Amino acid sequence: MTGEIRHVVVLGGGTAGWLAANHLARRLQSHLPDTVQVSLIESPDIPTIGVGEGTVPAIRSSLHHLGISETRLLREADATFKQSIKFVGWMKPRQGAAHSYHHLFDYPDILDSDPTPAWLQGKLPGMHYADAVSVQGRFCDAGLGPKLMTQPEYAGISQYAYHIDAAKFGKLLAEHGSNKLGVRHIRAHVTSVKVKTDGGIDSLITDCAGEIQGDLYVDASGFNALLLSQTMNIPLVDKSHVLLADTALAVQVPYSSPAQPIACHTLATAQHAGWIWDIGLTERRGVGYVYSSSHTSHEQAEHNLRDYLGPLANDLAMRRIPMQVGYRKKFWHKNCVAIGLSQGFVEPLEATGLLMFDITSRMLADQFPAHQAQIDQTAGRFNRQVSYAWERVVDFIKLHYCISDRDDSEFWLDNRHEQSIPQSLQENLEYWRYQLPSHYDFTNVSGIFNLENYLYVLYGMHYPTQIADRPGFAAPAMAAEQKVQAMQKRAAQLAAQMLPHRELINRIRQYGLQRI
Amino acid sequence: MSTHIVPLNNQVHSHLKVQNKALFKSFAEDHLIPVLLREFVGVAAEFPIIFVKSENTGQFHCVAMMGLKRGQNLYCQGDSFPAGYIPQALRNAPFSVTPKEEGSEELMICIDESHELVNAHEGEALFDEQGEQTEFLKARGESVVRYISDTQMTLKFMQMLLEKDLLVSRDMKISMKNGEEFVLNGIYVIDEQKVNSLSLEDLEVFRSRGLLSAIYAQLFSMQQIHRLTRKYIEVNGDNK
């Protein structure tokens, strides 16, 4: 044993496995001779879960870094653009109309003269918080795509991510990883796992590719976590008492015509026992109801989802997916790292699925241990960083429920039980009663949701922060009004150049985007 | 300006005549004029050649800059063309070509019936008494057909520049002596440093296809910005 790490074996051929393999191979330059080899074992017998169609803007920098063309993503993974998550009905109706707000991807424009204090003090009456700090909500409401044909790949007028067909995205990653980045693709089923005396993974025994030995293993085998859980017995930290939804009912809905407009945001519509996601891809919509099975029956849930879709859902088959909410106590144990559902899972409210696959893959690739002796130390750090990230993810998802004023079902009331709210979130909420959230509250780089995300959700949901009415803190209404007017003017100028979302997608699919 | 473009027909168009000149004024508001690969050297002696993206498709095109702002072509304000080289794009009208059928390779010649150069009494006849194409029409027809194939060649060259990553985006700021300033965005040019770092193999691809002169012509042509600013003052006066 030279102590070198020469071979990484990724177990699992879903999006998580392929993202991990791509990031590792890119970083380790595996396409060159005498570098660390990356192999991925994909079992032809195990279907991938294949949901997780939403992303956040960080995916753009990852795809760019991996060398995947944005044009290919749109052409081959049926991707569409996503500029926001629009939350509908997460508060009681106001003035007879359903409540809604945008969680935008553009950063709120608060750096130089922040309209937030004026908005909080009611000096911008009738205005959505998002519209007071960004132009992007107007683009979403007008159904406009976020970029111009003249802009290069991965650049836009506003910040954006994608809705993608997860299965097709997986194929694209597999093709790119194998052909461009030097990942060795092994199609075989793992029948047993050999364990070393120290408890690490020794090798994987397969049905048709023999015994595969690596120095480091990535467990991307899905909920089962064949290596980290089933072999190494690392337990799950259950979070079902915080996040009550435990089941998803998913359906693919065709468009009524090929020209039907595509929403440029995810729609998340609250229900009595959960919420419905609605995502527009190029060829179909992906829709699903995420609910708590202790607050509604499966039959009732299906009934609600069919109600939401209307007559067009009559003949569509629905797929029920039980969700295991929580994350592993450790993500990296001995020579095994979990990436993907094996690592953890929360409901897909803020598109955290692909996001966590992606950032923890990159974290692993960027902090790849120099040699075997460094593994334990790297693992310790990785575990702390990823634990922190998961804790903050849970806080942020919980935020959407616990500041709601809905009281029409036990589900919403139970979501506000003090015992169900993490201590860290309770402390923040307490603090933000009298203080605006600021960058000082988000100092750890491993946190995924930061100031901008909290602002959109807190004030989209009218969180009643009472700021001190003292000079320097409470902004004069004039400045805020002027800023908002300038913003409206700018929005109109930009909107005049932008294309309807589907038209933009069609043109990109036809002509392609330039790299420069 | 309304256009009425139809395929040429020896019955319908038997008495039509076309004045054998270019109507520069019809380009008075187009500050960018398409350039063919074979014209690079000639055009570079007068105008900056730049690369721009189409707003509709995002595709790159080679164009000559004939103005400093949208809506004004400094060279197409009068009846004559005040420069030594006239790009082919200015000389095609009123003729154009279109595929015989959708997707067909075969082309047919079209004419813009409403064009100012087209009339019944003045200029060159299109068909003789037997209904055959005149020498004039044959020559102009060949010229527009050639224009299409030359445009394809130009796009291929463009594609090679992109594949070899030789272009860079350059926002230009032009400050005039009278204090006026022009900011030109969305302009791409060849990067000389990138040309100099081409591998021998890639360089050989350009050399063997006779494309090096076009690359250098574009690099030199940027000096014509100075000529353009002088022309701007000549046309618009020295006052702001």
Outline the structure in words:
The complex is a heterodimer of chains A (516) and B (240). With 516 residues, chain A is α+β, with helices and mostly antiparallel strands. Chain A has three domains: 7-53 and 165-237 and 325-388, 3-Layer(bba) Sandwich (FAD/NAD(P)-binding domain), CATH 3.50.50.60; 82-160 and 393-496, no CATH class; 247-322. Helix content of chain A is 34%, strand content 18%. Chain A has helices at 15-28, 58-66, 70-76, 116-120, 129-133, 136-141, 166-179, 226-231, 298-309, 352-366, 375-402, 410-414, 423-431, 451-460, 477-497, 501-511, and strands spanning 7-11, 37-42, 80-82, 84-88, 100-104, 161-163, 184-187, 190-195, 201-206, 211-212, 216-219, 236-238, 247-254, 266-271, 274-280, 284-291, 319-322, 326-328, 332-333, 336-338, 344-345. In chain A, a hairpin with a 3-residue loop joins strand 15 and strand 16 (284-291). With 240 residues, chain B is of the alpha+beta class. Chain B has a three-stranded antiparallel sheet with strand order 1-7-6, covered by helices on one side. Classes of the chains: A alpha+beta (516), B alpha+beta (240). Chains A and B meet through helix 16 of A and strand 10 of B.
Dominant shape of chain A: globular
Q: Give the class of chain A from helix and strand content and strand pairing.
A: alpha+beta
Could you give the count of β-strands of chain B?
Answer: 13
Q: What is the percent of helical residues of chain B?
A: 25-40%
Low-confidence stretches of chain B: none
Q: Using the alpha-carbon principal axes, give the shape of chain B.
A: globular
Order of helices and strands of chain B: EEEHEEEEEEHEEEEHHHH
Secondary structure: helix percent of chain A: 25-40%
Mean of the pLDDT scores of chain B?
93
What profile does the largest beta sheet of chain A have?
Answer: 7 strands, mixed
From the coordinates shown, what is the CATH architecture of the largest domain in chain A? 3-Layer(bba) Sandwich
Which stretches of chain A are poorly predicted, pLDDT < 50 over at least 5 residues?
none
Radius of gyration of chain B: 20 Å
Strand content of chain B: 15-25%
Number of DSSP-assigned strands of chain A? 21
> Number of helical segments of chain A?
16
Quaternary organization: heterodimer
Provide the β-strand percentage band of chain A: 15-25%
> What spatial order of strands do you see in the largest sheet of chain B?
1-7-6
Biggest sheet, spatial arrangement of strands of chain A: 5-4-14-15-16-13-17
InterPro entries (chain B): SapC (IPR010836)
Protein name (chain B): SapC family protein
Pfam families (chain B): SapC (PF07277)
Organism (chain B): Bowmanella dokdonensis
